[in-house]
Design a protein that fits this description.
InterPro entries: GH28_Enzymes (IPR051801), Glyco_hydro_28 (IPR000743), PbH1 (IPR006626), Pectin_lyas_fold (IPR012334), Pectin_lyase_fold/virulence (IPR011050). One of its GO terms (molecular function) is lyase activity. The protein is mainly beta. The chain has one domain (9-183): Pectate Lyase C-like, CATH 2.160.20. Helix content is 4%, strand content 56%. The chain is built from one helix and eight strands; from the N terminus they run ββββαββββ.
C-alpha cells in the first residue's frame, strides 16, 4: 500500500498524487487503518488496487486490538484503477464508523464504491455516506458484498456484525456495466 496511516489521529492528506501501474498488485493508494479523524482531499490516485480503502485490522487480530477507523472524510478525489474507488474493508475487524465521501470522480474502474466484508471479519460497518460521485467506464457502480477476503487461520469468530446505515446518493455514471450489486452472506443475508 502506498500511504497507510495506521493507529493515527488527526491526519490530513491533501494535494497528493499516487501513481502505480494498473497491473501492479497490492498498490492501494491511501488506506487509513484503525485511525481517527482522517481527511483525504484534493488528490489524484491511479493504481493497480483500491484508490482509498478504509480498514481496521484482520480477523481476530483486529477484534483483539479493537480500534475502529472512525471519522474518515474523503473529498475531491479523482482516480482510476481496475479495482475499487472508495472501499470499506475487507480488513475491518475493529470496525469502520462515520465515513463521509463526496465529490469523487472515477474513471476506468473495476468497482466505484465497494463495501467488503465476510463472515468472521467481526467489525461493524456503520454510518457510511457517499455522495456526489461521477463515474465513467466502470464495471460495477456500487457493490456491497459479504463474501470478500479470506482468513489468516481457523481461529476467527464466525459471528459477523452488521453493516448498518449506508447512504449513497447523487451518483452518476456513463458506461457503467452493472449499476449495483448487493451480495449478502449465504446463511446470514443483509
Amino acid at each position: 500500500w502506498n500511504i497507510h496511516p495506521v493507529y493515527c489521529s488527526n491526519v490530513v492528506i491533501r494535494n497528493v498524487t499516487v501513481l502505480a501501474p494498473h497491473d501492479s498488485p497490492n498498490t492501494d493508494g491511501i488506506d487509513p487503518d484503525s485511525s481517527l479523524n482522517v481527511c483525504i482531499e484534493d488528490s489524484f490516485i491511479a493504481t493497480g488496487d483500491d484508490l482509498v480503502a478504509v480498514k481496521s485490522g484482520w480477523d481476530e487480530y483486529g477484534i483483539a486490538y479493537g480500534r475502529p477507523s472512525n471519522g474518515i472524510t474523503i473529498r475531491r478525489l479523482t482516480g482510476s484503477s481496475p479495482f475499487s474507488g472508495i472501499a470499506i474493508g475487507s480488513e475491518a475487524s475493529g470496525g469502520v464508523l462515520n465515513v463521509f465521501a463526496e465529490n469523487i470522480t472515477l474513471f476506468n474502474m473495476g468497482v466505484g464504491i465497494h463495501v467488503k466484508t465476510n463472515i468472521g471479519r467481526g467489525g461493524i460497518i456503520k454510518n457510511i455516506t457517499v455522495r456526489d460521485v461521477h463515474m465513467h467506464t466502470v464495471r460495477k457502480g456500487i457493490k456491497i458484498a459479504g463474501d470478500v477476503g479470506d482468513h489468516p487461520d481457523d481461529k476467527f469468530d464466525p459471528k459477523a456484525l452488521p453493516v448498518v446505515s449506508i447512504t449513497v446518493k447523487n451518483v452518476r455514471g456513463l458506461k457503467v456495466l452493472q449499476p449495483g450489486l448487493l451480495q449478502g452472506l449465504k446463511d446470514l443475508p443483509f
